[in-house]
Amino acid sequence: MATAELDDLQLDLTRPGFYLRPDYFEILAALRAAGPAHRTVDGSWAVTRYDDIRAISRDPARFVSSRGVLINDPMRNDGSAVPNTFSILHLDPPVHATYRRVVNRQFTPRAAARLEGTVRAAVDEALDRVDPTVELDAVDELASTVPIAVIAELFGVGDADRDLFRRWSDAVIATPDAAGDPLAAGADELGQMADVLLAHIDSPAGDGNDLLAILKNADLDGRPLNRFEIMGFCMTLLVAGNETTRTLISGGMEALHDHPDQRAALADDADLLPGAVEEMLRWVTPIQAFGRTAVVDVDLGGTTVGAGEFVVLLYASGNRDEAAFGPTADRFDIRRDSTPTHVAFGFGEHLCLGAALARLEARLFFEGLLARFPDYELTGPVERTRSTLINGAARMPVRLRP
């Protein structure tokens, strides 16, 4: 993209359609080359370089999360929280670490490994239902089924809640980008979710090892969590656990379909899968962006970000930064060196809690898929999700052939 074209660009990151432009990655490359930060239509700053994204993410003293982290976050209006809501995403040190410790041990690699049987069963269940003579939607019938099954297991709820979890998760994702009053959008779905979650929360705590029991029995500096804090944890984990992994799986399927030689290599050698999952994460980057607010004036590579200004960390741009990943940053390569680490899970104190679990789910899904259906075929165009948060597919028609 030429400099003149970049100057004329309306950099409107608040509009979901911007991320679906056919030249989106070309724009990101031009922005990286032109400077460290760029003014957007709404007065925010777009940050596109890998090193700057990491530096801001590990500097919560100067770049805070408590004034909103989503591009269209309702909290950005006046810097205050929405009444009766709580999210760990909006917390800064030292409070953030206090809350994160409540659930940290449930999401370590060792804890995730204990769910391997659940994940394998969910993968087998989804693949067992496949009719190789019929086209199916890979998002709805494959990619979404595994994380929802795992979430149901984590929360200790029955299979009947799985479809509800999927609908609620989608409603939460869509709400900030809705036209008009975002808090009114999806009110029915979100109200139903709140009612059901609060009913679970208000039931006797019990001594179980599921997340709800752990949250209800948690000690937060000498006091129990209140019901809105518990519901906030549940909503955050429900959405993050579903949307991120679903997008990783569907996006990984598309990437391997577009690179049949690498798909064949994975089908022949499952030992390549851990590295391939990391490359899928880098390439797909399920989360488009999160934001931070500067609380002091900050010099960012010669550009001054003023106190009170919002910066948008464009993770997909960081993950294709030539300065970090070399001249092949714009190519999908399952054998890529895993150093440096991608920023698909964010970086710093807000690094995704469920990273180890998402990796496990993706690895076992592709292990099962490629063992049974190594020559699957996309049979039509992929319908993209219109979102400022999720870089995902809403529908992906495929046919799985043994």
Q: With helices defined by DSSP (H or I, 4 residues minimum), what is the helix count?
A: 17
Helix and strand content put the structural class at: alpha+beta
* Extended strand count: 12
CA(first)-CA(last) distance: 43 Å
* Widest sheet: strand ordering: 1-2-8-5-3
The CATH topology corresponds to Cytochrome p450
- Can you say what the CATH homologous superfamily is? Cytochrome P450
Please give the structural blueprint.
Blueprint: H1 3-8, H2 24-34, E1 37-39, E2 45-47, H3 50-57, E3 63-64, H4 95-103, H5 109-113, H6 116-128, E4 136-137, H7 138-143, H8 145-155, H9 162-174, H10 187-202, H11 211-216, H12 227-258, H13 260-268, H14 273-284, E5 289-294, E6 298-300, E7 303-305, E8 310-314, H15 315-318, H16 322-325, H17 355-372, E9 377-378, E10 383-384, E11 393-395, E12 397-399
Parallel strand pairs: 2-8
Antiparallel strand pairs: 1-2, 3-5, 4-12, 5-8, 6-7, 9-12, 10-11
Short description:
Helices cover 46% and strands 9% of the residues. It has 402 residues and is of the alpha+beta class. The protein has a single domain, classed as Cytochrome p450.
